[in-house]
Design brief:
The protein is mostly helical. The protein is 80% helix and 0% strand.
Length: 235
């Protein structure tokens, strides 16, 4: 118990003094995760909208596949990305393995199904609600999509926040493709695992507190966004 309190006090001191190593690790974690969410949103939002508004052969199979991919094991994703970007892999010529770029790619693979599936579900629900109104107004497909995106903007934010929560807390994939290299690819989750195994509980606990705070903030933001969406529809 004394060790825990000593580690807690040391972690609090490091956070209060903005320890350079901690700041570097936290900054890289945020850069990697936010980049992954932005890229996944760039592809996931249009793809989710397509699945929600269009009917085509095999659509249900695609939806089932994306729903299943939401539970992708991170270590499997890390292994696949590793094989693709290793020296003997098809993309090994780019030399991206053990770089932040490879970590972003791995997180995009993890986050994309989440954003796509949640976007599809949100827009499909809104489409059932506004189908008759939009049809009576003779709205084009583009106009209907823009109207649904605007009306569902708060709920879509929860999809992005869910993707960010998944990305920032991930450890398996980024460990495999990033290598946990100090000052290069070390992020909060991999640093916590390493420092805890080395017995550096202060650093591990400090990063753990930051990660816990981020998780709380993401969940609080998602809850607030959902309340705003519900209030808007009630009004």
């Amino acid at each position: 118990m004394n060790d825990f309190w000593q580690a807690s006090l040391a972690a609090a001191t490091m956070l209060r003094q903005m320890d350079a190593d901690l700041v570097e690790i936290i900054a890289l974690s945020l850069r990697v995760s936010l980049s992954a969410v932005a890229i996944a949103a760039l592809f996931g939002l249009p793809l989710g909208a397509l699945l929600a508004l269009r009917r085509f052969p095999g659509r249900r199979l695609v939806i089932i596949a994306f729903n299943a991919l939401m539970g992708l094991p991170p270590v499997v994703v890390g292994l696949l990305v590793y094989l693709l970007f290793s020296r003997s892999g098809p993309f090994g010529v780019f030399g991206l393995l053990f770089t932040p770029t490879a970590m972003i790619i791995a997180q995009v693979v993890l986050v994309l199904p989440i954003i796509t599936s949640l976007t599809r579900e949100i827009l499909e629900t809104l489409w059932r609600e506004y189908d008759e109104a939009l049809s009576s107004l003779a709205a084009s497909a583009r106009q209907a999509l823009l109207a649904l995106l605007w009306d569902g903007r708060f709920m879509l934010m929860t999809a992005l926040l869910a993707g960010f929560g998944r990305a920032v807390a991930e450890v398996g994939a980024v460990m495999i493709v990033g290598g946990n290299i100090d000052h290069v690819t070390r992020v909060m989750t991999t640093a916590i695992a390493l420092e805890a195994s080395k017995g550096n509980l202060a650093i591990a606990l400090g990063l753990g507190l930051v990660l816990l705070l981020l998780s709380l903030l993401v969940n609080a933001a998602a809850y607030a966004v959902r309340l705003m969406a519900e209030d808007r529809h009630a009004a």
